[in-house]
């Protein structure tokens, strides 16, 4: 928490003024008291520490302001008597104590309100923050402003949800109007945000939720496609999951679904949707299905999964009837030859399975029988 | 309603329902009818109007008449110091110093100072021709501390200044801004020239530490019992105004700009620094021989040591030994201060008294980490045999003292951490800093309030009244109690009767190399020596340095000084080295008459 500049605060320089000695001592006391979880004493010392904001040494008040902010929030979190009121007034004051961290504090404040369910207040804080301008300072903090925008849109979504819940019971024009206006506000912000490369999972979901409600299906698919396939965005398996789920919900053709799942498979072979992929492939390309299943079994989380072994059993049963099944097997098993049997069919494993899961043991023994009929 | 100031804010007041807003000095909006202060501040108004980008420009009017009233009167820096000294003197009087101190002593010293530094009472004032009109005025005025110095002529000069154009300063002193520096940058007239390198070099000018030095000299002249260590302690505890003393200036004296460099303090001077200042000031003022410190005066070593013995919970019988040492060392001759004699520097009365006590203890208990504990064992045996016996037992004393000392040291650290340095009305160095400084002040205050609300004791604890004593020793069951009192104990296990006089049971005495280093070549060697000294001795040095608020090195040096006199000529001693070795333990007796050593 203490940056390099903060290190100066601990050191007793030879020509320290009485004021700096006081503040250094105070900080040491605060540290000790915090480590012992004496929150009320910490608050008392912090009251004396507030005078550091008036230090006339260049650049120090900024440092002190940050320290006061962080320690103050810590105390508020743990103090038995802290109320939301206290938080609000504290954040308000801290915001104005330092120009550089104004936006950060605004964000934290609105997060706190969000977490406590005060959506309207949180939104208010963010809109105040959005309209903040301070010359060079605000120009240099464009990242934070984007973040504020994003959360602004996100909060609009929450409020929209609230309104939707109340409006669904009766047809109320005013409430509907409000709901729509929140939707519009929210979508403006969220659309802006999604143009930027990044991981925007919760935002995407909220946007899609709203679009779905208003039956904007093509828009939704486009958004999801952009999110999943835009190269400038960091690779994000979740994007493909969302796209797949949405398309499944909207009953898109199988080919498209398979396409999405294929990419997901390359990204995350052990994904929980893989069995589903496998079953979809079962109707078509058995070799690919076999590949998927074997990939899954490489991972320890799937090793004892009955479903997957069942899949494998079914595939083997069906493949055996084909002509080239040995060649196909060899291809898929290629580099696994040396260790596959050892991993899955050790005596320890067998004992464990016979104790816990007899069915699995049966399936496994069938598989082993299929693979090497001449070994035990 | 002041439209320009409030920028057309026209909401209804929550309390009285009227629309009649004004802006206070700190930029806060308040309702003129019912004096209800609201949250809105002037600077918020400014930024809002700027941001929104409407065509409503918030007017920043000159407000000539308002500015004139705010301007106050013109004053000089020495007036400021005069006020500060006056307040300090009043605080001292409130603590029990005799009333003559303020008028007869301190005031006189101040006048002498003004004369010597050519700021007043002189035909040849320190400020050059530009100020001639002004300085004559201040020279003729009655410098009694109670009355304000400026005459009416000055006031009228500033009023005829026309509109409140800041650049021209005031009246007849337009010349002083011609140095090209930023226009009027201080509330007082001569702060700029006060701080010129030339003035600083001459070192004649008053500064905040010097006010304390002057007080100390005056107290010494008046033979009051407040030593320099006491003075500093009172300043630390806030009983004497020093930090933010300028807040008590009258309304018309406005401080800002360069004044802050003179009047703002962020440290309390150390004992040694203040001692040097006092010495230099006494020489500067060419003071004659001070009134003699006689046996009835509380500053005399015999009474002062009694005080410190009580403070340190040592038995009263020790005082006899201290007096004997004092006589042997010939302290009488050097107890009164004579500034103009170069060989008699300002004595450290308090540290000297402590040194005497330490020597007495060294004499009786040797303090070499062995003998004193053996003697304690003897004492406790004696006490066991004779249940009524109340022999002084060093071990028991050490334990009592150490507990009290650690508690007091912790409390002192705590007080340092909680000390408030920043004033209610902050000083700002330039006009454009003003809003920033005020804003920070406001935020700091508000944060302080919000933290206090969360703390266990929202109300600040009441400050303790000033006291000469740090520790309270007494009977068990008393309210405020640092430990049992040991003053009544006897030293009979540590002394032997030899013929007519008492002598210490311990036959040996040790000391480090005594030859004094040349004053300008070496500073204190304590840091190097400390590792070689016995721990008990070091602890004792630390004890007294805590009680007096000085560094242990200072006490150590003073002990050496007294030992030099006590043990005779130091010319035969080897000079102090980087790693001094202990000399042969000198066998010592306590008879006044003879000087032969006796062996046991």
In words, what does this structure look like?
The complex is a heterodimer of chains A (376) and B (600). In chain A, 72% of the residues lie in helices and 0% in strands. Chain A has 376 residues and is mostly helical. Among the domains of chain A are: 1-98, no CATH class; 269-376. In chain A, helix 12 (217-229) runs antiparallel to helix 13 and helix 15 packs parallel to helix 17 (306-320). Mean pLDDT of chain B is 74; it is low at 44-69, 128-183 and 569-600. The radius of gyration of chain B is 31 Å and the shape is globular. Chain B has 22 helices and nine strands. In chain B, the strands form four sheets. A three-stranded antiparallel β-sheet of chain B has the order 1-2-3. In chain B, strands 4-5 form a two-stranded parallel ribbon. In chain B, a hairpin with a 5-residue loop joins strand 2 and strand 3 (37-41). The interface between A and B is large, with 41 and 34 residues.
């Amino acid at each position: 928490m203490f940056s390099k500049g903060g290190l100066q605060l601990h050191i007793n320089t030879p020509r320290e003024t009485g004021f700096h000695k006081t503040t250094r001592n105070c900080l040491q006391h605060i540290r000790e008291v915090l480590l012992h979880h004496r929150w009320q004493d910490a608050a008392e010392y912090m009251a004396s520490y507030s005078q550091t904001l008036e230090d006339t040494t260049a650049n120090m008040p900024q440092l002190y302001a940050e320290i006061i902010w962080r320690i103050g929030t810590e105390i508020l979190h743990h103090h038995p008597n802290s109320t939301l009121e206290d938080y609000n007034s504290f954040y308000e004051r801290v915001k104005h104590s330092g120009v550089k961290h104004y936006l950060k504090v605004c964000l934290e404040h609105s997060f706190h309100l969000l977490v406590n369910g005060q959506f309207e207040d949180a939104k208010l804080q963010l809109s105040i923050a959005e309209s903040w301008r301070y010359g060079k300072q605000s120009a240099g903090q464009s990242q934070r402003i984007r973040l504020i925008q994003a959360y602004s849109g996100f909060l609009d979504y929450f409020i929209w949800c609230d309104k939707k819940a109340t409006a669904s019971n009766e047809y109320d024009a005013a409430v509907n109007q409000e709901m729509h206006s929140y939707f519009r506000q929210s979508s403006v912000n969220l659309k802006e945000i999604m143009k930027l490369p990044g991981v925007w999972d919760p935002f995407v979901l909220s946007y899609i939720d709203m679009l779905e409600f208003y039956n904007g299906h093509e828009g939704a698919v486009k958004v999801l496609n952009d999110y999943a396939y835009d190269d400038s965005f960091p690779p994000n398996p979740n994007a493909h999951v969302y796209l797949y789920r949405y398309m499944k919900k909207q009953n898109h053709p199988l080919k498209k679904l398979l396409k999405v799942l294929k990419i997901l498979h390359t990204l995350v072979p052990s994904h929980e949707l893989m069995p589903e992929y496998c079953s979809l492939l079962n109707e078509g390309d058995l070799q690919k299905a076999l590949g998927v299943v074997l990939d899954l079994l490489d991972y320890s989380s799937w090793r004892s999964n009955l479903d997957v072994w069942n899949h494998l059993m079914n595939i083997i049963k069906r493949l055996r009837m084909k002509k080239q099944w040995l060649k196909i097997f060899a291809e898929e098993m290629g580099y696994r030859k040396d260790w596959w049997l050892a991993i899955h069919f050790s005596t320890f494993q067998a004992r464990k399975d016979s104790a816990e899961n007899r069915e699995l043991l049966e399936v496994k023994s069938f598989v082993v029988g299929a693979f090497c009929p001449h070994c035990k | 309603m002041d439209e320009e100031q409030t920028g057309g804010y026209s909401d209804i007041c929550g309390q009285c329902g009227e629309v009649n807003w004004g802006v206070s000095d700190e930029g806060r909006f308040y309702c003129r009818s019912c004096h209800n202060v609201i949250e809105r501040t002037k600077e918020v108004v400014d930024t809002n109007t700027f941001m929104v980008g409407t065509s409503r420009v918030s007017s920043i009017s000159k407000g000539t008449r308002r500015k004139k009233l705010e301007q106050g009167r013109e004053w000089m820096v020495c007036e400021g110091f005069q006020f500060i000294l006056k307040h300090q003197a009043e605080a001292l009087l409130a603590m029990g110093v005799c009333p003559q101190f303020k008028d007869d002593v301190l005031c006189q010293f101040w006048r002498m100072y003004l004369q010597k530094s050519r700021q007043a009472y002189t035909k040849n004032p320190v400020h050059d021709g530009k100020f001639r009109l002004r300085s004559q005025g201040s020279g003729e005025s009655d410098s009694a501390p109670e009355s304000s110095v400026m005459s009416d002529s000055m006031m009228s000069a500033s009023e005829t200044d026309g509109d409140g154009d800041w650049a021209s300063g005031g009246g007849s002193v337009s010349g002083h801004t011609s140095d090209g520096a930023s226009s009027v940058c201080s509330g007082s007239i001569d702060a700029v020239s006060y701080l010129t390198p030339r003035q600083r070099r001459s070192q004649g000018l008053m500064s905040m530490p010097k006010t304390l030095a002057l007080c100390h000299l005056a107290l010494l002249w008046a033979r009051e019992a407040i030593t320099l260590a006491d003075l500093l302690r009172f300043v630390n505890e806030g009983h004497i105004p020093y930090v933010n003393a300028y807040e008590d200036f009258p309304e018309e004296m406005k401080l800002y700009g360069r004044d802050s460099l003179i009047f703002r303090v962020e440290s309390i001077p150390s004992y040694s620094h203040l001692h040097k200042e006092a010495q230099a000031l006494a020489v500067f003022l060419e003071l004659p021989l001070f009134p003699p410190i006689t046996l009835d005066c509380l500053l005399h070593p015999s009474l002062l040591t009694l005080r410190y013995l009580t403070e340190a919970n040592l038995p009263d019988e020790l005082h006899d030994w201290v007096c004997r040492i004092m006589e042997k060392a010939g302290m009488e001759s050097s107890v009164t201060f004579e500034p103009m004699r170069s060989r008699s520097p300002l004595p450290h009365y308090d540290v000297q008294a402590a040194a005497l006590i330490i020597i007495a203890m060294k004499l009786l208990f040797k303090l070499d980490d062995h003998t004193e504990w053996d003697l304690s064992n003897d004492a406790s045996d004696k006490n066991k045999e004779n249940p009524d016996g109340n022999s002084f037992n060093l071990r028991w004393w050490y334990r009592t003292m150490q507990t009290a000392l650690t508690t007091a040291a912790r409390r002192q650290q705590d007080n340092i951490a909680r000390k408030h340095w920043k004033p209610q009305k902050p000083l700002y160095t330039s006009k454009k800093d003003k809003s920033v400084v005020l804003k920070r002040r406001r935020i700091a205050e508000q944060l302080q309030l919000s933290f206090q609300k969360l703390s266990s004791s929202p109300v600040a604890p009441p400050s303790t009244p000033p006291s000469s004593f740090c520790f309270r020793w007494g009977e068990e069951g008393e309210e405020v109690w640092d430990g049992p009192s040991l003053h009544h104990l006897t030293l009979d296990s540590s002394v032997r009767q030899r013929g007519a006089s008492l002598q210490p049971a311990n036959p040996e005495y040790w000391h480090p190399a005594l030859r004094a280093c040349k004053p300008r070549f070496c500073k204190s060697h304590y840091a190097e020596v400390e590792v070689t000294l016995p721990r008990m001795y070091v602890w004792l040095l630390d004890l007294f340095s805590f009680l007096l608020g000085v560094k242990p090195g200072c006490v150590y040096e003073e002990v050496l000084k007294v030992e030099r006199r006590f043990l005779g000529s130091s010319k035969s001693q080897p000079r102090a080295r980087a790693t001094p070795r202990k000399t042969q333990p000198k066998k010592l007796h306590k008879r006044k008459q003879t000087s032969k050593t006796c062996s046991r």
